[in-house]
Amino acid sequence: MKDETKEALENVKQAVSALGAQLKEEAKDLSKEVSTKTQEISAKLVKQLRDRTDAGIMECKNALKECAGNIEEAIDYLRKKGLSKAAKKADRIAAEGVIGLQVADDGSKATLVEVNSETDFVAKNEAFQELVENVLELAFKRVLNDTESLMQLTIQNQIFEEYLKQKIAIIGENIVIRRANTIVCKPNQIVGGYLHHNKKIGAMVLLECGNAESTAKLRDLAKFLGMQAASMRPKVISYKDMSSEFIVKEKIAIIAELERQNEELQRLGKPLNRIPEYVSRIELDENVLNAKKDSLCLQLKQSGKPETIWDKILPGQIERFILDNTLLDQRLTLLAQPYILDDKKTVEQVILEKSKEIGNSITVVSFINFELGEGIEKKVDNFAAEVAAQMH
Fold first, then answer.
1. Are residues 65 and 120 in the same domain?
2. What's the CATH code of the domain at 98?
3. Which parts of the sequence are annotated with region: Involved in Mg(2+) ion dislocation from EF-Tu (predicted)?
4. 97-133 tens-digit pLDDT
5. CATH of the domain at 67
6. What torsion do the CA atoms of 130, 145, 169, 118 make, to the nearest 10 degrees?
7. Which pLDDT does position 143 carry in this prediction?
8. CA-to-CA dists, residue 223 to 32, 204, 333, 356, 360, angstroms
């Protein structure tokens, strides 16, 4: 009996030992699993904290470390450091603000920036204006054409991204450095710019001429063309820069617009708009112009005008035909627009006159125009609806 009891006890010891070994292995596996899970949670927490505060990755990691992984405490920790307050506003729409422009004294370089705020009131704030000046100075100095590069630069002994967050915290509104463009001239080029007094529109125009001496005489023209581009909002330099598909699409829209206007004009008993057959110079090829010229000659003949004076009449009539059939060009192309300082001339005519004056051909190489908030969908608050919703 004793032997059987002894054997049973030995079996129990062996079973306990085996179970202990199994538990140790399972504990090791569980420890590895917990460690992995902890790492995953930590990564998730960092992302959650960054999404909620927009603070830097290292700042989020340090905050979570200081707060033992408690995300709410970490948010308070960042707020106390002045970092979370700025980020809390990151989802607010910033569609106000200002356009900034800097042009080198010799016309060799120019920069446009757009800095947005939530309200026009803050855009007039001294701290905001200082921020814009610093952005413009950095973009001009470093020849920036994007805002991502700006965020990595150093300003006042800190990374610009952190400097911006501090400014947001101080000013109390979301601020977005929306865009920056810089033009640097090549030989025989000059850039001019214009910024409207309200700082809501601005533009730069790059001109090229035959030699440096002639180019130097284009400073005023470059500035005036900058004014043209800012105020008249052309999309391209010439009709040659528009695709045939775009012209066909816009022709349909222009004709529909004129026909709608004619309905109202007819109701008022006023002269109707002429519905054009064409809307761009690109449609007026040699065949079209020759056919029009033949038609005009026939009209002159039928009217009894002496053939000897047709040459004096036809150029003006052809010019009028072109003017009537290039509405799209006049709206969207810089060269075909009426010149803002003399609307009896097109920009192209003014450039040709200046070319003759200086004895050298002038070319518009490029232009860039900014309008504050263009393309940003502004949120329109309905206060009455908001109150009504809270009452239910």
1. no
2. 3.30.479.20
3. 119-122
4. 999 999 999 999 999 999 999 988 888 889 999 999 9
5. 1.10.8.10
6. 90
7. 96
8. 69, 8, 18, 19, 19
